[in-house]
Amino acid sequence: MNRQSVLILLSLLVLESFAQVPGLLDALRKSGASKFAASIESDATIANLAQPSQVQTVFAVSDDAGGSNVKRQLSPAEEQQSSLQFSGGLNHLNALNKRPGAVVPTKNNVANLGGKPQNIVTDTRNTTGNGVTKRGAPLIQRQSLNTTVLGSLRIFSGLGNSVSVTTGDIAYDGGVIHIVDGYFTLPRTLSATTLALGHNTFTALTNSSDLTAELDSAAGITIFIPTNAAFAAKNVSSSDPTTPSLIDGHIVPNFVGYVPALTDGAKLLTQAGTTVTVTVQGDDIFINNAKILASNVILENGVAHVLDQIISFAPDATPSPTPTIVPFKGTGLSARPVDTFQVFLVFFSFAFCVVLFY
Predict the structure, then answer these.
(1) What would the pLDDT profile of 256-314 be if each residue is shown by its tens digit?
(2) What is the pLDDT of residue 3?
């Protein structure tokens, strides 16, 4: 076989491989996500959003997770939620599965993040959102690569809820599909999130400090939320005039600190003007003294993390007090008045000795 024939054969093989890559809807049906495919077909907004020119990564909900094959127009809230399942970037499993995780911009553009789209966040640490070691999570399977990913890849969204990728890197003519076991949760405001998750003390203290509206509307923010028990342990009260400052010390403005951004040694300036330091120990993350128990609680305008303690700060350095100058009193030997007679005797004895030996 001559060189020209080899080139022609290779070209035909390449063309055949491209011809075998299905479109999005066909790929979804073949991968056990036919209900998700039906939801795309039923809604013009989502169908337009899912075009290859708009999307390169699709997080498709498996048929086992529920849903319906009945085609119907989605409500505006359902459209917003569905838009979280699509990303304009090409996100292969190897990028999503890096430690400690990855931030994925979605096609949801109603977030209050300074003009940026809403994000979902992967977490590859060996803890769940509640700080519990993962057990019994499904293994991820790759269909287009000859590599198996050990463990489960979880992806976080609103209310700190997460879904797991069960099958990944399924090729279609616009990019890749990852099959997940549920829909992402639409993020809410901070006040709605803390209320839904039962952080009643934090909710009450932000209300009494007149911070609720400010924190719900600030674009791009990170909130560290101590548990109810943490507040109770320190007897924090809404009547204490220092409480607003304490809450401000748990707020980092103009920074969206998803877990991948909380790097060891990072220093964050809080709304109170104090600085907190991030410490990473294995899979655990600390903010000063406080350990993150639940991470990546995605908000409309940022992210929140739940802490096991109230953040404490090292006391400010104060000058040492001026030492009292104590007059010198000798080395501890008693001081006695000079005896002139004794001096005379010493002098006389010395003179006598000189004359005697001279």
Answers:
(1) 999 999 999 999 999 999 999 999 999 999 999 999 999 999 999 999 999 999 999 86
(2) 65
| DSSP code for 1 | -
| Contacts with 49 (C-beta within 8 Å, 6 or more apart), sequence order | 55, 83, 86, 107
- Looking up tokens 């198996």 gives 148
The string of DSSP letters for 19-60 reads: HHSPPHHHHHHHTT-HHHHHHHHH-HHHHHHTSTTT-SEEEE
Residue 144 CB partners (closer than 8 Å, separation 6+): 169, 170, 171, 176
pTM reported for the whole predicted model: 0.78
Indicate if the pLDDT at residue 148 is higher than 70: no
* C-alpha span between 297 and 161 (Å, rounded): 7
Structure tokens of 179? 């099959």
Q: What is the pLDDT of residue 66?
A: 74
Q: Both tokens of residue 135? A: 């057990």
Alpha carbons 252 and 273: distance in angstroms, whole number: 10
* Distances, alpha carbon 316 to alpha carbons 213, 258, 274, 275, 313, in Å: 31, 29, 11, 12, 9
H or E, element range at 269: strand 267-269
Q: DSSP state, 63? A: G
pLDDT value of residue 7: 54
CA distances from 121 to 226, 291, 346 (A): 22, 20, 96
Q: What is the largest CA-CA distance in the chain?
A: 137
Q: Which of 232, 324, 224 is nearest to 271 (CA)?
A: 224
